[in-house]
Amino acid sequence: MKIAIVTGASSGLGMAFVRRLDALGGLDEIWGVARRGERMEALAAELRTPMRPLALDLTRLESVETLRVLMREEEPEVAVLVNAAGFGKFGTCAELTLQETCGMIDLNCRAAAALTAAVLPYMGRGSRVLEICSSAAFQPLPGFNVYAATKAFLLRYSRALRWEAAPRGIRVTAVCPGWIRTDFMDVARDTKNGRTVRSFPFAQRPETVARRALRNSRLLAVTTCGLPALVQRVASKFLPHCFIMACWEGLRRA
């Protein structure tokens, strides 16, 4: 059984990846992983490819173990893994609650790494792993510090994992887009933690990011899925981080 596994499949970018994989075809089943099972069931009804909704909270390690047991029982061939589940909040380290700080680290870092490790034994030559990072990974961002740091971890993890998995013919891509028009923006701004970002310039549609990411993952180790994030990536290599952080502060104050 040839499958794809997509986390964060109940909304936003994860849902866009499910729809794109369905449109591309060639899969026997898509496994969607998210907390909101009813949303995934509604999505499954729209698809041509059978979708298995797995209502799991990936911040709990037992959820990863549940998926590991399921794969051991069914022994699927995992053609594509998309780690799209993510969580972010604006606020300084002093302003964020402990729950918010730990939640970002648990979901964006620990869950992504744990799930990837669980799925890799079921991947083979030609399989692809897409770790959804962010252009926030390219530089430190005061007031969005913890989120940016978690994505920097995932970017470094993805780059090294690509080398580790290459002998088996598995391709790993870090997907680092800029702003995406999803409910992530509303969640991130739903805070009492002082200044936030009021405008999201050059925001992309999730469908556009999913399409470009899947196309680019056949060749690229890192894809930004758009010109603005690519410029940000290049600029972060040459401009001092203090200058970039000052520009970021200007955007937050605007």
Automatic annotation (TrEMBL):
It comes from the Bacteria. Pfam families: adh_short. The keyword Transcription does not apply. Keywords: Oxidoreductase. It catalyses: L-allo-threonine + NADP(+) = aminoacetone + CO2 + NADPH; 3-hydroxypropanoate + NADP(+) = 3-oxopropanoate + NADPH + H(+). GO terms for molecular function: 3-hydroxypropionate dehydrogenase (NADP+) activity. InterPro entries: NAD(P)-bd_dom_sf, Sc_DH/Rdtase_CS, SDR_fam. It is an enzyme of class 1 (oxidoreductase). NADP-dependent dehydrogenase with broad substrate specificity acting on 3-hydroxy acids. Catalyzes the NADP-dependent oxidation of L-allo-threonine to L-2-amino-3-keto-butyrate, which is spontaneously decarboxylated into aminoacetone. Also acts on D-threonine, L-serine, D-serine, D-3-hydroxyisobutyrate, L-3-hydroxyisobutyrate, D-glycerate and L-glycerate. Able to catalyze the reduction of the malonic semialdehyde to 3-hydroxypropionic acid. PANTHER family: NADP-DEPENDENT 3-HYDROXY ACID DEHYDROGENASE YDFG, VERY-LONG-CHAIN 3-OXOOACYL-COA REDUCTASE. Belongs to the short-chain dehydrogenases/reductases (SDR) family. This is NADP-dependent 3-hydroxy acid dehydrogenase YdfG. The lineage of its organism: Bacteria, Bacillati, Bacillota, Clostridia, Eubacteriales.
